[in-house]
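Hello again,

I reread your note about wanting to compare the complex against the isolated chains. To keep things tidy I'm splitting this into two emails, and this first one only covers the full assembly. Below are the input lines as submitted, including protein chains and any nucleic acid or small-molecule components. They are followed by the predicted structure of everything together. The single-chain runs will come separately.
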Amino acid sequence: KQEVTQIPAALSVPEGENLVLNCSFTDSAIYNLQWFRQDPGKGLTSLLLIQSSQREQTSGRLNASLDKSSGRSTLYIAASQPGDSATYLCAVYGSGNTGKLIFGQGTTLQVKP
Amino acid sequence: ETGVTQTPRHLVMGMTNKKSLKCEQHLGHNAMYWYKQSAKKPLELMFVYNFKEQTENNSVPSRFSPECPNSSHLFLHLHTLQPEDSALYLCASSHRGTGNTIYFGEGSWLTVV
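Full-complex prediction:
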């Protein structure tokens, strides 16, 4: 059974700092991995989707990497801003064609001005 | 605005009530999903519909009854719920198949009293 773990559960950094969020999964036979952002009381916003054949994806100040063999993904946020404060969720697509996502519990990030 | 609209945003219902959550997507997708987000727990998949057909039921109690009349609309009918069913219910959609970005709505906050 696939399990997704995100460390740390919470993180507080000063504005301008570069930071890394970690995601690990127990079954390396994943199809793809997706990072989401969730603001308090809101739904999820997709940040980056990494296909199983890719090793990384970049969007603006965000860079996500994927190492299937070690069961790990990282989300790198450069030059953090207070507006980056949110919960970041990692999710993996399991085997098969169901589109079923398995989520981690998230990392809650606070960027202080 | 993600293209996935959920109503109502907030719902309070008694344990003997019958209510429904509605989801509509304007993205031309053919797969729709219900996810549940409880406090302190990872997001968990409830149901998957592909081309209006249910393809996954993640052992959800029968007091939750989904309905998908067409590829753009998805309902979750609620009946005789328990207080522990209080949670954020998120609808999502995507193109069918693993590896396509999934888009979430803002969610419906449900409180069962």
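For quick reference: Chain B has no helices and eleven strands.

B.
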